[in-house]
């Protein structure tokens, strides 16, 4: 399939680019703070030339750099790189009107059909035919229970006594 990118929405690009640039600016600010802090720690151990009147770099504490620089880089990077991106989007949208957009050749990927869950599958099943009854030779009903044995008449010859009476 061939697709052509005819324009880029300016507001959609601005929202996404600002958010992404702020995150990247924060991460680069963290890396810069640690790198700059390491360089400052190395410079503290270097001997200074007294003629130059150079102040020691330990005037700015490392913790201050780690806290402040990521936010400064995030804000500045978010604004500057987003403005640069907006300029490129506007230029792209103007050039596309003259030359046409970027063309992409994309291949479709065969996807497997999702397998429904058993509960969903059971609720969607149509009632099927009833299973056949078992063959007659295998089916044998239970015989009825036998009647109780007859009473023995001799049981009435001996009267039973109740205690206390």
Strand order of the largest sheet: 1-2
Number of separate helices: 3
What characterizes the major β-sheet? 2 strands, antiparallel
Structural category is mainly alpha
Give the fraction of residues assigned to helices: 40-55%
Which residue ranges are poorly predicted, with pLDDT under 50 across at least 5 consecutive positions?
Answer: none
Determine the N-to-C terminus distance: 108 Å
User: Which percent band covers the strand fraction?
Assistant: under 5%
Mean pLDDT: 76
Overall shape: it is: elongated
Number of beta strands? 2
Helix and strand arrangement:
Layout: E1 2-5, H1 10-44, H2 62-99, E2 102-105, H3 118-124
Antiparallel strand pairs: 1-2
Fold and architecture overview:
The protein has three helices and two strands. It has a domain at 11-47 and 57-105. It is mainly alpha-helical and 165 residues long.
Q: Would you kindly provide a brief summary of this structure?
A:
The protein has 165 residues and is mostly helical.
Keywords:
165 residues; mainly alpha; two-stranded antiparallel ribbon; 3 helices; 5% strand
